[in-house]
Amino acid sequence: MNDSVGRLLRLLEERGELDHTLVVFTTDNGLLEGEHGMVDKRTMHEPSIRLPLVVRYPGLTSPDHPRVVEQMVLTEDFADSILDVCGVAPLARSHGRSWKSLARGQADPGWRTSFLYHYNYEKQFPYTPNVRGIRTERWKYIRYPAGDGGPDRHKPELFEIAADPEEARNRIDDPSCVTVLQELRAELDRLMAATGALPDRMPLDEGVKKELPDARFR
After folding, report:
1. Interior CA angle at 50 toward 53 and 111, to 5°?
2. For the segment 164-192, what is each residue's pLDDT rounded down to a tens digit?
3. What distance in Å separates the CA atoms of residue 105 and residue 78, rounded to the nearest whole number?
4. What are phi and psi of 125, to 5 degrees?
């Protein structure tokens, strides 16, 4: 991968186009291989949801003085950001935001401080149940609704990411976290409503079965 990126950059440089090209380097979700007792890449745990994002564009970034942006940027921001850099109006309907100003080192007091994670159970990927969660700069709350209107079958999780980046300690039962848990649940409901995810319709979590999924999914 590194060699291929290098070849592309050299070709752009040879053509005199490098400094007129926006380069965005990122990847798909991380793949869990047993972390948290899970596999696949659809969970909300940090090894799965954290992606590299490296951006190069002279005038927007400085190759001589790379800058690390601490704000939470999402994949849904890519389209709006690329359009913004190209001087094109943002999408009419989008949950994303342009990170152009952040890449320039400019403050954006209205930038997000939390984001929603939303995943529906799929028969072809049965290792991951329905997931509804919220992540802030400090905390993460995850719940696993069954889809039948009854109680969640899997224990919810609460991690203080700032102090526990490996998510080794589930604090969902910690009495000292009652208030923050209430706040996170309220913020989760707010984001669900803001993104049009309410009423919350989801498939039934059928778990991992012995037979193969429907042939259409294979």
Report:
1. 70
2. 999 999 999 999 999 999 999 999 999 99
3. 18
4. -130, 65
Long-range contacts, stretch 85-89, CB < 8 angstroms, 24+ apart: 85/22, 85/57, 85/60, 86/22
- The reported pTM is 0.90
Q: Where are the alpha helices (DSSP H) in the chain?
A: 2-14, 46-49, 78-85, 100-103, 178-194
Residue 177 is encoded by which pair of tokens?
């976290």
CA distance 126 to 212: 10
**Helix, coil or strand: residue 142:** strand
Classify residue 89 by burial, with Cβ atoms within 10 Å: 0-12, 13-18, 19+. Answer: exposed
Instruction: Yes or no: say if 48 and 41 are a contact pair by the CB < 8 Å rule.
Output: yes
* Cα within 13 Å of Cα(27), Cβ side: 13
First to last CA, the chain: 28
Cα separation, 45 vs 36, in Å, equals: 8
The DSSP secondary structure of 4-48, one letter per residue, reads HHHHHHHHHHHTT-GGGS-EEEE-SPPPEESGGG-EES-S-SHHH
Kindly give, in sequence order, each residue whose CB lies less than 8 Å from that of residue 48, ignoring residues fewer than 6 positions away.
Answer: 29, 30, 31, 32, 41, 42
Q: Pick from 20, 21, 24, 44: which is nearest to 32 by CA? A: 44
With a cut of 80, say whether residue 212 has pLDDT above it: no
